[in-house]
Here is the input.
Amino acid sequence: MSNVIQLKNAAKIHGCDNIVAEVVTISPTDATNWLRCNEHNRPVRKNHVNFLASEIKAGNWQVNGQAIVIADNEQVLDGQHRLLAIIEAGQPIKTLVVYGITPEAFSTIDTGAVRSSADALFLHFHEYAQGIVRAVATAVPWLKQLERGAMRTGGSSKVSNTEVIAYAQDHLSLFERAERLQSYPKDNRPLSVGVGTALYEYFGRRDEEKADKFFQDLYTGENLERTDVEWVLRQAFAKDSQRITAKLQMSIKVRMCIKAWNWRRRGMDVATYQTISVMPSEDTRLIIL
Here is the structure.
């Protein structure tokens, strides 16, 4: 066994020559020493390291069968970001380690599909249709931004599967709102059900009755006048969907919806495109009435 990477109670994997595995606790010191064995470190995604470190600090890390894979020459074939996260968090984690893989096997690692938030959520809410579960999984990261009161440029922020599950369990109304939005004609939807669910949930916390009416009008377009803010918003998004290039970022669309909601909440009557327009230089803080 290696002088650097010690697996004191490793078990040989049945059917494989010289490959062993063990669930071990890796300390920040262990992680540092293991990474020193790497002669050719791969590019590091710092944001991913920070994300994993935050998961460790929050106590969300669990032994899930995903292994840190070490070659027979002690190169870290899979798990570099997890080891860096242990160092960043300054806390040990318990995880499966597989040792003795040939370095040539590296090219076959991570060729499978990654489990999405929707996949994880469906295991806990299998009574709902998959489309509804996907919408809720999409909604959660957007809701967290709305709650923070600031919108990330370009899209929703990354949220772990553990956080998505916990949030959905605490906010079961998300599933009801997603079901309602999905029941409206698909061809008339100005926004995806996922993003709409996030806004519907957040606006509903302000005024449930007005939120119901706002999203019914926005998603169906029924009985609207040209001066209604919901009609103006629908037209703006319909034109955007026809563009081939320079489409509106979803974060901009979300802010346009917030402006339309605030207009409706104020009881204003005549709306124009200027009512809902968002300038690139505009303050990214979210003020929701």
